[in-house]
Amino acid sequence: MSTRVENQERLTRGIKMAFVDQNRKLDRLIFASSLLPDKASERRFLLLVESIRSFAESLSQAPIWCFTLGDERDLSETARDRLSALNTTFIHFETETEIPRFPFMWKALLSAQAESIAQGKTDVIVWLDTDTIVLQEPKRFLLQDGKSLGCRPVHHTIIGSRYDDPLNLFWTQIYRYCRVPENRIFPMTPHVEGNRIRPYFNAGLLAVRPEKRLLQVWRDNFLEIYKATEFQELYEEDKRYTVFMHQAVLAGTILSALQTNEIEELPPTYNYPLHLYWEDITDHRPSTLEELITFRYEDFFESLEWREKIPAKEQFKQWIAERLLQ
Predict the structure, then answer these.
(1) Closest Cα partner for 39 from 85, 1, 3, 70?
(2) Which of 3, 183, 188, 280 has its CA 20 to 30 A from that of 298?
(3) Average pLDDT of the residues of the chain
(4) Cβ proximity of 172 and 230 under 8 Å
(5) What is the pLDDT of residues 140-189, one digit of tens each?
(6) Residues 222-236, mean pLDDT to the nearest whole number
(7) In the structure, what pLDDT confidence band is assigned to residue 21 with cuts at 50, 70 and 90?
(8) Contact 193, 236 (CB under 8 A)
(9) pLDDT band at 96, cuts 50/70/90?
(10) How many Å apart are CA 83 and CA 201, to the nearest integer?
(11) DSSP β-bridge partners for residue 208
(12) 51-73 pLDDT, tens per residue?
C-alpha cells in the first residue's frame, strides 16, 4: 500500500459512529457542517442550526450532523445545552496523523467523512459552511432524479478561469491532475458578477448523493495533488492559489466525476453572499433578505452597525439580535 493511501486511511479513521441506528428509515436529507474549536465558529454553528429548525419548514426536523476537530466538552455549557435541545448530533473527527496545515484541508476531510457515514442513510447530504443561515424551505436540496449535485458558483471570480480566455497554467494543471474531459466545460456566472467563467463551485454549499462518493474523491484528489511541484511554484507566484486550491480541486473533481446533466446549479436565492451585497452588480440582488432561501455572511455580524446595514425587515433583525446576545 502506498504511503499516500495509508495516510488517507489514517486521516479518515476513528469517527465515533455510536449514534448510527442501522434500522432507521432512510432520511430524505441530512444537513452537515463543521464546528472548529473557537467561539466564533460556535456562534455561527448555533445560528445555522437555529435557522434550520426555525425556517426550513418541511425540512426543519431533518438530522443535523456537527463534525468537530475538537471535543464536545470544549463548547460552552450554553452552546451544549442549546444544541442538545435542537437535536444536533456531534461527530468527533479523530486521526492518527496531523491534518496537513493547508488552507481548508479540514473542510475536504470532514465533508468527505460526512458523506461516507451518510451512505445508505439518506438520499441527500447537504454540506453547509457554518456562516450559513436558512430563511425558507430549501426544497431544491431534495435533488431531482438524475441529479447528483446541487451547488452554486463562487461569489467572485478571483482565481477563476474566464470562459472566453485561454486556460492558464494553474487551471491546466488542475484539469490534468483531476482528469477533466474537455467536453464537460461550460460557462457559469459568479454570484455577484456579470462575467462568464469556467465551472468553479463554491465549497460552502454542496448537496450530494452519498453513493456518488463525490466529496470523498475531492478529499483524495486534494491530498494527492496539493503538494505537487507544479502547484508549489504557482503558490509562490500568487498566494491566492494557496487559499483557493480547495475550490479549484473541487471544480476539477466535479467535472471529472459527473456528467454535465448530473449537476444542478441552484438559483441565486441559495448561498447568497450578504457580505458582498453592495458589490452585487447582477439583476438578482434581493431587495431584502426575506427573498432568499439561504445566505452566507462571513464576518458581517462582527460590525457594530450590522443592524443598520442589513437589508432585512425588523422581524428578522430582531431574530438575529436575540441570538447574538445569547
Answers:
(1) 70
(2) 188
(3) 92
(4) no
(5) 999 999 999 999 999 999 999 999 999 999 999 999 999 999 999 999 99
(6) 97
(7) low
(8) no
(9) low
(10) 30
(11) 125, 149
(12) 999 999 999 999 999 998 876 67
Question: Domains along the chain?
Answer: 3-158+188-212+262-324 (3.90.550)
The C-alpha cell at 72 is 464536545
SS (H, E, C) the chain: CCHHHHHHHHHCCCCCCCCCCCCCCCEEEEEEEEECCCHHHHHHHHHHHHHHHHHCHHHCCCCEEEEECCCHHHCCHHHHHHHHHCCEEEEECCCCCCCCCCCCHHHHHHHHHHHHHHCCCEEEEEEECCCEEECCCCHHHCCCCCCCEEEEECCCCCCCCECCCCCCHHHHHHHHHHCCCHHHCCCECCCCCCCCECCCEEEEEEEECHHHCHHHHHHHHHHHHCCCHHHHHHHHHCCHHHHCHHHHHHHHHHHHHCCHHHEEECCCCCCEEHHHHHHCCCCCCCCCHHHCCEEECCCHHHCCCHHHHCCCCHHHHHHHHHHHCC
- What percentage of the chain reaches a pLDDT higher than 90? 81
